[in-house]
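$ ./design --mode recover --in tokens.txt
reading tokens...
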């Protein structure tokens, strides 16, 4: 089967602070985006489609300039994303649909997760082949509460049954594209991951083991810690 990846990097990244959106900040000499692209470009993965913010073309060009030719030649021209992650993913899927050879499977990955391992990418592909829709998840260490608008607890889901899900999330391409198109058409624009889009469309989604190290860089503190690790300053 052919496999492509959509890498979403169209967020403002403002929670991370700093002069540049976090996906363009540097981690030990490489941008977060370049690290994520390199991590996703495993042997089983063909086309890589990045989604960027309007006006971000120059930052994107600069970020990918240092990638090895074997990776760079798999990049589609970047697509401009939307106001939400959901809209940005859809833009990337539509770019793949319009390309010369739409894939059988697609991996959707947050540019903000640069530490994903080759083994996890491989596992995502294999699980999507077996189940059609598969996402990595890790057990939740905090007790989670659902609260109402006043901050009052509504209920406390049983912790052992909860998983914090990560990316890459892997799907049969045609099914994910169709689910995204239908959700947008139905006005469902509040879905925060692609599993939720598939769930909304009535598909069963399988959760497999993610990796504790596959964190999403969100805050300035996340960035500082990641940079220190990348530069080997933490033991
Ligand atoms: O904001 P959050 O951390 O959930 O973003 C997850 C990923 O989705 C990031 O890589 C971000 O760049 C991307 N994103 C996007 N378009 C948006 C919002 C987020 O591509 N409108």
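writing sequence...
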């Amino acid at each position: 089967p052919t496999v492509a990846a959509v890498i979403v990097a169209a967020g403002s990244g403002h929670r991370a602070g700093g002069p540049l959106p976090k996906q363009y900040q540097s981690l030990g000499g490489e941008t977060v985006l370049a690290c994520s692209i390199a991590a996703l470009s495993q042997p089983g993965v063909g086309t890589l489609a990045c989604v960027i913010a309007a006006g971000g073309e120059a930052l994107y060009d600069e970020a990918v300039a240092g990638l090895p030719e074997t990776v760079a030649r798999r990049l589609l021209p970047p697509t401009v994303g939307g106001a939400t992650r959901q809209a940005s993913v859809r833009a990337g899927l539509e770019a793949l649909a319009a390309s010369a050879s739409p894939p059988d499977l697609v991996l959707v990955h947050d540019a903000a997760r640069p530490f994903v391992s080759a083994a996890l990418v491989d596992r995502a592909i294999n699980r999507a082949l077996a189940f059609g829709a598969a996402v990595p998840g890790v057990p939740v260490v905090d007790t989670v509460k659902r609260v109402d608008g006043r901050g009052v607890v509504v209920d406390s889901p049983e912790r052992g049954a909860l998983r914090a899900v990560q990316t890459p999330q892997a799907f049969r391409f045609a099914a994910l594209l169709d689910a995204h198109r239908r959700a947008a058409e139905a006005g469902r624009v509040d879905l925060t991951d692609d599993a939720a889009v598939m769930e909304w469309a009535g598909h069963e989604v399988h959760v497999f083991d993610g990796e504790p190290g596959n964190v999403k860089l969100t805050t300035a503190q996340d960035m500082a810690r990641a940079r220190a690790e990348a530069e080997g300053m933490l033991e």
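exit 0
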